[in-house]
Predict the 3D structure of the following.
Amino acid sequence: MLQQTQVVTVIPYYQRFLARFPTMESLATASIEEVMPLWSGLGYYARARNLHAAARAVMVQHHGVFPQAPEAIAQLPGIGRSTANAIAVVCFGARVPILDGNVKRVLCRVFGIAGIPGTAALESRLWQYAENLLPERLPKRDLSKDMATYIQAQMDLGATLCTRNRPQCTSCPLTDICIAHATGRTAELPQRKLRRVTPERHATLLVIVHENHVLLETRPPVGIWGGLRSLPELPPEDNAAAYVEKQFGVRVLAVSPAPSFDHVFTHFRLHITPQVCHVTLRPSAMEAGFFWLDLATRDNAALPAPVRRILEELSLP
């Protein structure tokens, strides 16, 4: 949940998720339709699908026992090398390095390493630094506790002091050995990728309403809002009333636009224009993947944040 998301945002989602799925087995035996509502509004929904798939993999491939080796953990869906190593250190006392964004920033500044994180050459170099800096096993010391403290300290140092903007160098325990601080290059390191123009897309979402129900579709498991329930999208250049009547077998009574707004994804900006269509039902079979949601139950539905916002701002009952 903390990938690409701040702690203050995650906490209530984390608490609700663990209350509903307190064990690996309870998560693995649940359907994805039960999992997605608890992620609704948090974004980056592939995380939820991967977490669910990982729980099932643990139950099937590892007989319900979470693997301890970093290499085995990294084979679970949605878990890369750094996350796998962090789990192995904190949970099982392994002696392996991590390399998340915070640690990369600390290493680049302390050792004056130029280059853009994410490139293969620099990643390899940073992994070597992280490996070489691991604490050694000391007599009469519990290395597992030392490692967990060390790894957590690395992450916290980058998250709280060695921040991307306005680092608190006067409070940092590494100031005396930090090359970036000594050479006045904290703003330059690590180097940033060239900023690209954010692509823009447009979508007209249909809010098809009938007697306190709204028509939703289940999104494909991959792609934008994968696995969530969303409003149907009007194809470009189509007329809303004609499309709705032809596609869903209903009669449109009135169409009215709702305020447009933007929603920013990682790689593009989506301009959303809702069109509210009040309809009467005709005796026609509903197309597969579509269903009517009782608006009284919308709080429990797996809705992406923009769709939830549309329904809330329209003040539908």
Remarks:
- The longest strand covers residues 269-281.
